[in-house]
């Protein structure tokens, strides 16, 4: 019951600061731009590229899988940054302004407070992600060929799990640190670091959460059990750690 | 091949909605982190990122003691 109360309050807050609006819109734009630019790349180069008169460029039309991969690549770069910036203050800002004291005076446990935040954040993320990737797929099947469905579902699920991991990391840092900028920097370093580590040392790091976005781009169907399991495990671990941290320290002050 | 204008239309509509919402919020808010006229210029002239920047950073930090 306490969890429901926190979720309701958090939803209200999310509406009040228009996060329900701008995060989905941003992902919508990201998903929209990539297929369009891929399709009209040669026209754009001709118009604005400053090429000499009479230059002929042949750009082979990308396959729909390539465009899908490029869209996910956009999500991985800009999407990650925006997700972290959107949720960096979810806990730290309330802690800084002293709102948590008012809230936790009532018999609300730290765990339900943390999970309430996490659930609402992930819901906003899920809606944004689905909208963004949905419009990207719509444009891809309009401008290119439709993508085969079964491989797509797996890829989407893997990518969603990776974004859930980003939310978990950001919320955890938000619990530990009071300054929003430090939260953002730490979360971005951890998330991008894990991902770069996984793509540089493919042989030893293929089981880490950082491998998930690359697997999703490649629409892999094999050797995906370990990274998925390790990601779920890491999310559970950071959740448990932050609740423990809140309990063991003078977190309210 | 569908018409180029129809393809870009959603982009324009989204942009428009974003700007309107940001402006309504700016109008209603008593105080913002930067001067109001500056935010108005940013929302109007910086496409996409401008309104989002306002919605993220525009509000004044509050303090409960």
UniProtKB/TrEMBL annotation, chain A:
The chain crosses the membrane at residues 20-37, 72-92, 113-140, 152-170, 182-204, 224-246. Coiled coil: none annotated. Keywords: Membrane, Transmembrane, Transmembrane helix. It holds the Pfam family ABC2_membrane_2. This is ABC-2 type transport system permease protein.
Automatic annotation (TrEMBL), chain B:
It comes from the Bacteria. It is a multi-pass membrane protein. It is found in: Cell membrane. Pfam families: PLDc_N. InterPro entries: CLS_N. This is Magnesium-transporting ATPase (P-type). Residues 17-58 form the Cardiolipin synthase N-terminal domain. Keywords: Cell membrane, Membrane, Transmembrane, Transmembrane helix. The chain crosses the membrane at residues 7-25, 37-57. The lineage of its organism: Bacteria, Bacillati, Bacillota, Bacilli, Bacillales.
